[in-house]
UniProtKB/TrEMBL annotation, chain A:
Keywords: ATP-binding, Membrane, Nucleotide-binding, Transmembrane, Transmembrane helix, Transport
Name assigned to this protein: ATP-binding cassette subfamily B protein
Superkingdom assignment: Bacteria
Source organism of this protein record: Paenibacillus methanolicus
A molecular function GO annotation: ATP hydrolysis activity
Domain ABC transporter, chain residue ranges per copy: 392-626
Automatic annotation (TrEMBL), chain B:
SMART domains referenced in this protein's UniProt entry, alphabetically: AAA
Location(s) in or outside the cell: Cell membrane
Annotated ABC transmembrane type-1 domain residues: 19-304
Membrane topology reported for the UniProt record: Multi-pass membrane protein
Domain ABC transporter, residue spans: 338-573
Transmembrane domains' residue ranges: 15-35, 61-84, 138-154, 160-179, 244-263
Primary location class: membrane
The name this protein goes by in its record: ATP-binding cassette subfamily B protein
One annotated Gene Ontology cellular component of this protein: plasma membrane
Superkingdom of origin: Bacteria
Annotated keywords: ATP-binding, Cell membrane, Membrane, Nucleotide-binding, Transmembrane, Transmembrane helix, Transport
Length: 633, 587
């Protein structure tokens, strides 16, 4: 197991501890759900089945052929070497065909399985991406990742292991039984009695083994997490001279893992050996019962030989099939989890029919046509919302995430096109909620938000989202080149446009200094660039996508003075000719705003220019003086 | 440090277990090979018409006894080897961890956590597998091969017949050795592709707000779809080889059987081989298939683990940068001056010095403030004081004693250090604060928390000081982490305290409270404060301004303000900034 994997498992296990752990596998509903995906491949699967039959034939018929050789040739004393050669030839033919068909079967089955899994993976991802923001706020991104990677991987294992084993081993067991009955009914019946016993023992052991395996896995992950953390913090451990204590804690975890391992080994050895003993017991039994029958001439010796071989062959597929039991269980749980997600509809949806209200408005009509274009490609909407002026009306809106805990109550706000608004207020005053509502990440409970007079609920989300640009406190960068990060991987935006945008916001110089310039690959969270530089890239995005309304969640991190200057300039550039809303964490950025809004408990308590608010002597002035006082103290 | 030979050391201690285990394997297989022989004898008696009821019972019981005895012996043999394998694993991991605790920053800078973890996990596991599973399977296979051959020869099966039948089986190990690495390579590709998909999903869900805001979901779906297709392609590539392999091995087995059937059958008909021996031969051929395949696996795993073993030995033979001198003395820092005397320091002989001719004297009980840009050498200076790196001899002295002549325990034990990043462990808040002394009483923990202005925040948590932090627990904000880390440094009530930009992420109001409480607590105790913001150091008895490794200005706050220079410039910028200081509070 790789370290990262081990830590991940540990976290996943731990998360499981809290919530509804031990989901009961719901076999029927899970496979009903899956059957829709399997149906298009039913002919391929029939082919797999046919291949399997041919593939296992040589292994199955070998004892039978031996029996014929022994009984009809060797024991009959006919000295018929030609007959023996014929048997050998048949056997050779069978084994060549089984070699070929085993190969085909495996490839075909994987072909089918992989196609299904790939389709489900893509659909699942697309479905999750379609959800509204509320969904992402509720679900931890960790659990979503688990669904997309681990759950679909469990599904993959279902196809590549469980199904394969069900086909091959299931058919093998079945055919062995048939052949046994063919050879001798009485002896076959005796063997049949053994079957349920073997299965029961195997399954009982398997679930026990699963528990010990889980224990070892959890302890391993715990140990690895401990080591990982101590490696990162080793400087601290040494500075505090705590090496001995940390070593002691490590030894404790190491010892726990060791003991869990021993338990696992004991269980494994015990199980394996019990199974072997059972198999040997069965052989002794067959020899005894069969031997007696041979003695009484009810049975030919060749039949007995075949039985003994079949009994040996019998145990192996049973062993493999029971091995799949755990995989089957986890795959079933995974399927039902995946289908739960498929069953979740986005809370916020576009209006399908054109409402009369929106039809009146030219803007909306234009946007509606944009939606139809969208279906052909994202990029085609040409990023121009020419006629949109960017006038925003919050009309008596109320909002709450949970019933009874209102976040915003009856708020009214009118923003002129091109106006720059600064929003201040303490944490929890409702600043971010206001923004989420404008972006329609959530829907208002009462009232309405209108852009150029059109209710945001009547604008297709894709259009609305392009209309409003958002620069977050923590700019998010994707792994890819700088060019792609600026144009959001949209190839229809030219490299020149990207460079021009970067020049505009003053990022060009910085980017050109990087080893690969605009082709520099950024990784997740944009390592390699400082916080300020990442922020500049997110400004360049705004220039490229030309939204009519810009929302800026101002970074509160301590940037060095030079970068801060760069950002301030960039902000001035991007806010030009746009309606701009700045959520301020420092007053310096918004002092020049056309209007400052002071929010408290979901209401606007003061508004006006900096000068007006200072003169008013209310909350804003208090905030201002507080910051002044700090400097004095 | 002596050259590390972890495997040799291990075998020197555990060879009796191995001898015992191999003996058991031998016994088990010697018993096991009787099984075809008994069936063969049974056949001969039957063919000769000498079979009686009593003999049938005898043979059945013999088979049962063989079955049980061989299984029991092989079970014990396997357990023994796996057991010592795990003790090896535990021992080596213990060694590694101890080694990690001794290595200095240079080592970590060079290796990185991911690489070290891979030594710790993958390499140790690889070696353990080849000495546990590998030895088990090799021992089992060779013993079986030997005993089966012997048995066949004893039974009077002609050697040429045995040779002809076993020959195809002998190809199996070669095939495994050839195809094994290819399969492994391809399955690694699958793993990588899976990892890539997970990464992409992680990135997409993390940046969902941005993706949605730019309405580029279809593009992102396409990007994700690409990674899914890559997995599928890698998986199918793997299947092409692995299924070929899986079909080939049993095929060789059947070829061996066909030879046994044709050739053996011919000899039987010709009367040169008894029917019993013929039956036994076919059973032996079947018996040998699995062990031969395992030998191939073992060869592959040994090849992989040899590289791992070399890596581990190499890692363990590196010696730590910082070694206590043999004549190291216990330091007493409670009332001693710290002298830094013409200190010039570079991280490696070839690189530019990070500190150039730095001289400072800190009187007992004084407070020193250090200010300067990022990369000016402030943190390096602190690391030298703590002897995380070795300064040139005689350049750093505590009470006249060279820092290199002091025991590390006494030096670091008496310095309270608060690093910049506020690194906390994933354990309870209490244990994090009481890191230097895990037995510290609750009262002193609470005091330290109060001084660091974090007590009120902790009080609001449901489990207060017992709240778990980190991956499985609560995530603190940057400012809260710094304050917790500060409490961890303060609780030591050390003779010397070093604050390395420890309040950079807290807001201005809290910063002032913290500085005030530090001034109270550290009154008359030596304190060194590094800061970006002037407000955190202006009360110091002496302030030095570092720029590019050199002291460019020194003096008190007042003195420095009066002279033109970096300090006055910084002051001007920061005053202007704090004019508009934060309107919202941190956390």
């Amino acid at each position: 197991m790789r370290p990262a994997q081990a830590i991940h498992n540990w976290q996943a296990d731990h998360k499981g501890d809290h919530g509804g752990q031990e989901e009961k596998p719901q076999y029927i509903s899970a496979f009903k759900a899956l059957s829709g995906y399997v149906k298009p491949h039913r002919w391929a699967l029939a082919g797999v089945m046919a291949c399997t039959v041919v593939a296992i034939l040589s292994e199955l018929l070998q004892p039978y052929l031996m029996k014929i050789a022994i009984d009809d040739n060797l024991l009959a004393g006919k000295n018929d070497f030609r007959g023996l050669l014929l048997i050998c030839a048949v056997y050779l033919g069978l084994s060549v065909s089984s070699f070929i068909f085993a190969y085909l079967q495996n490839n075909l089955l994987q072909q089918v399985g992989q196609s299904i899994v790939a389709r489900i993976r893509k659909q699942l991802f697309g479905h999750i991406m379609k959800q509204s923001m509320g969904y992402f706020d509720r679900m931890s991104s960790g659990s979503l990742i688990t669904h997309v990677s681990s759950d679909t991987e469990a599904l993959n294992q279902f196809f590549s292991q469980v199904l394969l084993s069900l086909f091959r081993d299931g058919l093998t067991i079945l055919f062995i039984l048939v052949l046994m009955f063919q050879l001798d009914t009485t002896l076959a019946l005796y063997c049949l009695v053994l079957l349920p016993v073997i299965f029961l023992i195997a399954i009982a052991f398997r679930s026990f083994m699963r528990a010990t395996y889980q224990l070892a896995r959890t302890r391993l992950s715990r140990m690895v997490a401990f080591v990982a953390e101590n490696l990162s913090g080793m400087g601290l451990v040494q500075a505090f001279h705590q090496q001995k204590e940390q070593q002691r804690q490590f030894d404790e975890r190491n010892g726990l893992y060791f003991r869990a391992n021993l338990r696992e080994i004991r269980t494994n050895v015990l199980f394996g050996r019990t199974f072997d003993i059972l198999s040997n017991l069965a052989i002794a039994l067959v020899t005894w019962i069969g031997g007696m029958a041979v003695l009484g001439k009810q049975l030919e010796f060749g039949v007995l030989y075949a039985f003994i071989t079949y009994i040996r062959q019998f145990f192996q597929p049973i062993n493999t099939i029971t091995q799949q039991w755990n995989t089957l269980q986890s795959a079933t749980v995974a399927i039902s989890r995946i289908w739960t997600i498929f069953g979740t509809e986005p809370e916020i949806t576009d209006k399908t029919e054109e409402t009369p209200r929106s039809a009146e408005r030219s803007v909306t009509r234009k946007q509606m046509t944009l939606t139809t274009e969208r279906s052909q490609g994202v990029s085609e909407e040409a990023h121009s919302f020419g006629s949109v002026r960017g006038e925003i009306d919050f009309e008596h809106i109320s909002f709450s995430y949970e019933e009874g805990i209102p976040i915003i109550q009856g708020l009214d706000l009118h923003i002129e096109p091109g106006e720059m608004i600064g929003v201040v207020g303490t944490t929890g005053a409702g600043k971010s909620s206001l923004i989420s509502l404008l972006c329609r990440f959530y829907d208002v409970k009462e009232g309405s938000i209108r852009i150029d007079g059109t209710d945001v609920r009547d604008i297709p989300q894709a259009t609305l989202h392009r209309l409003i640009g958002l620069v977050q406190q923590e700019p998010y960068l994707y792994s890819g080149s700088i060019v792609d990060n600026v144009r959001m991987f949209d190839d229809s935006i030219s490299r020149e446009d990207v460079i021009r945008a970067c020049e505009f916001v003053g990022a060009d110089g910085i980017i050109r200094k990087l080893p690969d310039g605009y082709n520099t690959l950024l990784s997740e969270r944009g390592s390699g660039l400082s916080a300020g530089e990442r922020q500049l890239i997110s400004f360049a995005r705004i220039i490229v996508f030309k939204p009519k309304v810009l929302i800026l969640d101002e970074a509160s991190a301590n940037l060095d003075s030079q970068t801060e200057q760069l950002i301030q300039n960039a902000l001035n550039v991007v806010s030009k000719q746009r309606t701009t809303i700045v959520i301020a964490h420092r007053l310096s950025t918004i002092m020049q705003a056309d209007r400052i809004i002071v929010m408290s408990h979901g209401e606007i308590v003061e508004q006006g220019s900096h000068q007006e608010l200072i003169e008013l002597g209310g909350q804003y002035r208090e905030l201002y003086e507080h910051s002044q006082g700090q400097q004095a103290g | 440090m002596k050259s590390q030979r972890i495997l040799a050391d291990f075998f020197r201690r555990s060879w009796p277990v191995y001898v015992l285990s191999i003996t058991f394997h031998l016994v088990s297989n010697m018993i096991n090979v009787f099984y075809p022989k008994v069936l063969g004898a049974f056949t001969d008696k039957l063919a000769g018409g000498e079979l009686t009821r009593g003999l049938v019972v005898d043979y059945s019981l013999q088979l049962l006894a063989i079955g049980i005895a061989s299984v029991v012996f092989s079970g014990i043999a396997m357990y023994l080897v796996m057991y010592v394998g795990r003790t090896f694993e535990r021992g080596v991991r213990g060694l590694l961890f101890r080694h990690f605790t001794r290595m200095g920053e240079r080592f970590y800078a060079k290796n990185g956590v991911g690489k070290l973890l891979s030594y710790f996990m993958n390499d140790v596991t690889a070696v353990r597998e080849s000495i546990a599973m590998g030895i088990n399977q090799t021992a089992n296979a060779t013993m079986l091969l030997l005993s089966a051959m012997t048995m066949m020869i004893i039974s009077g099966i002609p050697l040429y017949l045995i040779g002809a039948c076993v020959f195809p089986l002998l190809l199996i190990p070669f095939i495994v050795v050839y195809l094994g690495p290819i399969i492994r390579q391809r399955s690694l590709h699958v793993q990588e592709a899976l990892g890539k998909m997970t990464e992409t999903a992680e990135e997409q869900f993390g940046g969902i707000r941005v993706t949605k805001k730019f309405a580029v979901e279809p593009i992102m779906n396409r990007r994700f779809g690409q990674t899914v297709d890559d997995i599928r392609a890698a998986q199918l590539r793997l299947v092409r080889v692995s299924s070929f392999f899986q079909a080939l091995v049993p095929f060789l087995g059947t070829i061996a059987l066909i030879i046994a059937l044709a050739f053996g059958g011919y000899l039987t008909i010709a009367g040169r081989l008894s029917l019993g021996n013929f039956v036994a031969l076919t059973l032996y051929v079947r018996m040998l298939m699995t062990p031969l395949q395992q030998i191939g696996n073992v060869i592959n795993s040994i090849q992989r683990s040899r590289a791992s073993l070399e890596r581990l030995n190499g890692l363990l033979s590196q010696s730590p940068d910082i070694v206590e001198s043999d004549a190291a003395t216990e330091a007493d820092l409670s009332d001693c001056a710290i002298e830094i005397d013409h200190l010039t320091f570079a991280y490696s002989p070839s690189s530019e010095p990070v500190l150039k001719d730095v001289s400072v004297r800190i009187e007992p009980g004084a407070t020193l403030g250090i200010i300067g840009r990022t990369g000016s050498g402030k943190t390096t200076l602190m690391k030298l004081l703590l002897r995380i790196y070795d300064p040139p001899p005689g350049t750093i002295r505590f009470g006249g004693e060279d820092v290199r002549e002091l025991t590390l325990e006494s030096l670091r034990g008496q310095i309270g250090y608060v690093p910049q990043d506020g690194f906390l462990f994933s354990t309870t808040i209490r244990e994090n604060i009481a890191f230097s002394d895990r037995t510290a009483v609750m009262g002193s923990i609470e005091d330290a928390a109060r001084q660091a202005q974090i007590h009120a925040n902790i009080d609001e948590l449901p489990e207060r000081f017992e709240t778990k932090l980190g991956e499985r627990g609560l995530t603190l904000s940057g400012g809260q982490r710094q304050r917790t880390s500060l409490a961890r440094g303060l609780i030591k009530r050390a003779s010397v305290m070093i604050l390395d930009d420890s309040v950079s992420a807290v807001d201005a109001v809290t910063e002032k409270d913290i500085i005030d409480s530090i001034r109270r607590e550290r009154h008359n105790k030596t304190t060194i404060i590094i800061a970006h913001r002037i407000s955190a150091i202006k009360h110091a008895d002496e302030i030095i301004v570092l720029d590019d490794g050199e002291i460019v200005q020194r003096g008190t706050h007042r003195e420095l303000l009066e002279q033109p220079g970096l300090y006055a410039d910084l002051h001007a910028i920061q005053e202007e900034g704090s004019l508009h200081a934060t309107g919202t509070s941190d956390s």
